[in-house]
Amino acid sequence: MADFTVVLATDGSVGALKAASWIDENLVDGNVTVHVVSVIGVPSFDEEASNRGLVYNPQWDSAEAVHNAWSRAMVRADEALHQTEHVLTHVHRIERQILQAPHPAEAIVHYARDHHADMIIVGRRGHSRLGSLLGSVSFAIVHQSPIPVTVIGHHPLWENAAAPSVSS
Amino acid sequence: MALRVLLATDGSPSSLRAAHWLKNHLNEHQLSITLLHVMAPRIEYGKQDGFINARKHSEEILEATEQALGCCPSVETVSVIGVPHEEIVRFAIDHNIDLIVMGRRGHSKIGHWIGSVSFAVFQRSPIPVTIVEPDQ
Asked: Which residues does the UniProt record annotate as the domain UspA (chain B) (predicted)?
């Protein structure tokens, strides 16, 4: 099998970890490189900024507060990457990347294109609570991506049984 | 163990491209591929030769997709009648499919948007779905 590069978008949610364990089970033969990518928003203390896709919170009243929020987001993204990598036990080539961008889907699609990826893999939904609907980020990725996108949904029967166990 | 792949096709350029992508990018020796075409129920099936023609059309679609796929050792072709997205998901569950592959849009002409069947499969499939974007 020729080199096969996939971009796995993760936010550390159960859906993303399921996507990772699917890769671990099914895409291990051959020269698979997995780019584990997490996206964080761009915090700002400009109220108008939310129109431009930046994250605004009225409680952030100083540059320091914004910086702290940003640091926390970086830590969370880093944890998400670690948890996801932990599931990928059979993959030998893993690249990790935290992207900072106002639009996660756009950032992931650009990243995939820049790294000549063959496929983007995402869990169907992240931390949102909109029931079983396709998550907005995965939908936006499918909509924008010029390369194939695999969305890993999950089965009602797996709900409790096969949630990937994560120990740190 | 071979990855069981279901390629849902409607003969559109988008699904032929999905077949092509499957051939080029996934190791054919490790795949067992099933081609599925779903015939949506139509009133014409009740007319003389209506159903026979529809079956013939379905076979042509499967043949075209098989050609786009090129030579793969174990390809099975199936044609069923029903609501496309329901049948695709049902078939995949019943046959322990590991991955559903389909084009982003079928014959619809509404530009860049994801097709209704792909979207419906996408939303409710418990099995991973790969959507292949047609060439621009």
From this structure: 3-132
Total domains, chain B: 1
Domains of chain A, by residue range, sit at: 4-130+147-161
**ipTM exceeds 0.85:** no
**CATH number, position B22:** 3.40.50.620
pLDDT digits (tens, 9 = 90+) for B43-90: 777 788 888 888 888 999 998 888 888 866 678 889 999 888 899 999
Helix ranges (DSSP H) in chain A? 14-26, 63-87, 104-114, 136-144, 158-161
Query: What is A4-130+147-161's CATH number?
Result: 3.40.50.620
- Containing H/E element for B13? helix B13-25
Rounded to a whole number of angstroms, the distance from the CA of B92 to the nearest CA of chain A is: 12
Range of the domain at B54: 3-132
Is B131 in contact with A26 (Cβ distance < 8 A)? no
Q: Are the beta carbons of B130 and B7 closer than 8 angstroms? A: no
Which residues of chain A are within 8 Å of residue B131 when distances are taken between CB atoms? 142, 148-151
